Structure formats: C-alpha cells, structure tokens
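Input for the complex:
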Amino acid sequence: MVALTTALSLLAGALAVAAIVLFRRLAAAREAGERATDGLLRVQQDLRLRSTEAARMRAGTSALDEGVVLLDIDQNVVDWNRAASDLAGLPERRQGNPRRVEDLLPWGQLELALEDLERPDRDTDAVRFELAEPAGEDERNLLVRVRSLGDLGFVITIHDQSRIRRLESMRRDFVANVSHELKTPLAAIKGFVETLRDDPKMPGSTRKRFLERISTQSDRLNTLVGDLLTLSRLDETEGGAEGFQPCDLALVTKETIRDLTSLAERKGLELSASIPDGPVFVRAEREGLRQVVSNLVDNAIKYTPEAGVVAVQLRFTNVQVRLEVADTGIGLSPEDQDRVFERFYRVDRARSRELGGTGLGLSIVKNTVRGIGGEVGVHSAMGKGSTFWVTLPRLPTDSSAG
Ligand SMILES: Nc1ncnc2c1ncn2[C@@H]1O[C@H](COP(=O)(O)OP(=O)(O)OP(=O)(O)O)[C@@H](O)[C@H]1O
Ligand SMILES: [Mg+2]
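Predicted:
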C-alpha cells in the first residue's frame, strides 16, 4: 500500500513536471508565434511603404523631360521613363525579362562609357557624350550621361539638345549672312572711291555716275543696318508689350497704300484696297505696324510683273483682324513658302538684291506680328501669285487711336 502511494505520488510529480514543461513550451511557442506575426506585419507595412515610394518615383520620373534608363549591375535594362521612350525609341513599357542594354540602346559610345565605368581604376562615376539620333531628316541632338550606382547598377539620363543646337546654328548663319551683306556694298563703295581718287582726269559724267552708285550703296547699307536694329529690338522686347498702344490698323493700312501708290503706278500695277471706313484697333507699336503693312505691300509690288494687280484687304470679327495682301506675281513654291519668313532667305538672291532687298523684310513682319500676339502666313501658286495674310487680336472699337 505504501509502495502504491509512493508510486502514485511519484507519477503525479512526474505528470506535474511534464505539464509545466509542456506549458512553458506552449507559452514559448505562442510568444514565438506572436513575434512571427509581428514580424510579418512589419514586413507587410514596409512593402506597402516601398511600393508607394516606387510608385511615387515612377510618377516623378515619368513627368521628367529628361530620359532616364536604369540598368542593373549586369547591364540589363530594368526600367525607363516616358521621355526615354520618346528620345531613344525604347518601347512604351518593359515586356518579359530585362534585355541587354546594347539590344535596346545600340550606341557605340554608350558601350565605351559603361566599359569605362566598370574599370576598377576609374577616376570618375559619370561619363557624358553627345549623340545625333537617329541620323537623317529629323535628327535629334542628345546629351547622354551615364552614372555608376555601385552595386545597384547604372543610370543613364538623356537630354534633348536639338533646340539649343538649332539656335546656335541659326546664330552662326545669321552672323555669316550679316557680314556678307555688309561686305558687298562696302566693297563696291571702296572700289568707286579708289577709282575716283586714282583718276583725277575722269570725265564729269563718269564721275557723276560713280558718285550715284556710291550713294545707292550707302542707302543699301543704311537700310540693312536699320533692319538689323529693328530685328534686334524685336528680339529684346520678345513677349513684352511695353510701348504698345491702341493703333488703328485701318488708318495705318490706308496711309501705307497712299505712300506706295506711286511705286505701283511706275511699274504699271493696279493697287486696290478694300478697307473698312471706321477704325479697327489693335494693340501694337505704330511704327512696327506700319512696317508690317509696308513690307507686305512692297514685296507684292516688287515680285509682280508689269500690268499685274495687288489687292489689299482688311476684314475683322469681334476678336480678330485679318489683313491680306494678294498679288498676281511670280508666286512661291511650297518649299519656299515654308522658308520665306527666315532671316536673309531670298528665293532668287541676285534678283532680290537687284531690287534692293536684303531678305529681312518678312522676318521683321513675322517677329512683329508674333510680338503683338498674331499669326502670319502665305498661300501661293507658282506663276499665278501669292497671298500673304496676317491676323491680329482686335481691341474693342472705343479704344482711342495711338
Ligand atoms: N509677294 C511675293 N511674291 C513672290 N515672292 C515673294 C513675295 N514676297 C516675298 N517673296 C520672296 O521671299 C523673299 C523674302 O522676302 P523679304 O521681304 O524677307 O526679303 P526681300 O524682299 O528680298 O528683301 P527686303 O529685306 O528688302 O524686304 C524674297 O526675296 C522673295 O524671293
Ligand atoms: Mg521684302
């Protein structure tokens, strides 16, 4: 009996110990489970945060004008933004596995840049180069920068420089053209002056003819310098409306036509006008407006052979005024219609120069009209004639004339 009681109490003790161990294990397991759940929640939160950050980064880069391309450390293209698609012709979005950089951006200079950045002894983290892409008609000038991100890979940024390069080339052309246009009359003047100086016995009639030529060439220089000053003034005040006043375009047009009538008559041309009786106001600088009308009518007269017609018309709506100068002259080819508003552009250089032109008239018209917030254009048929038009924003009629 005593033995049985002892055995039972031993068993109870063992059971109690086992229960305590089990209980502790259970408690430990629950704690571990709770820790695991906590950990999982934190990971989930972290992931959510990261995907929001990634979405924000993506939205940010998609709004950039600069192209951005990301490579991993093995030079696979992993991501890029919208501008990179536009500038480098990459597909809209990535499909399937990442592709090798040379498959998507097959630029020799890029390959060299990446090679450079992978050299252990490199002294820089970034390489830049310029690229004309794609070669041909609508070539774009791209500035490409490649930067190493260490273990994270590389980032390539692509910047479109075409506009800057185009402007630079226009400026170079402009300076070359100005120099050339100045040199021609100067050389002529110098030639006449030297001949006069070296030949004191020159007959009076020849002397007079030479002096007249000098006078004509000086006038040419004067006009050229005046036009250049006008253009530079227009460039400076681009977008600014200082000095603009309400001007009566109907009055300015009538006065210009009156001034040019004798020129048209001398060429045997009919100059007709259809202009409203009352005032038509626009906000502009009066002299600029006069130059616009005068350049267009002067061209129509210059480039229309004898017995032709030049018709000037002014029409308006509540918000807009339209001036049209139509002629029955030599006309312009479609390619020339696109180019006549460029500085110094002349279809027939020799003929225009003979007529005293420098090829700046229409560029002055265009700059002035754009400065007033208007538009200018031409439609024309070779051998039949041209119509140059200008539209300007109209001011209410009660504005006072400037
Ligand atoms: N009405 C027209 N008909 C045909 N060709 C024209 C007409 N107006 C302009 N052009 C062409 O466009 C060119 C540029 O005209 P623009 O008025 O700028 O220069 P320009 O008349 O030669 O010289 P200027 O600086 O004295 O005006 C002209 O040389 C001419 O070839
Ligand atoms: Mg002209």
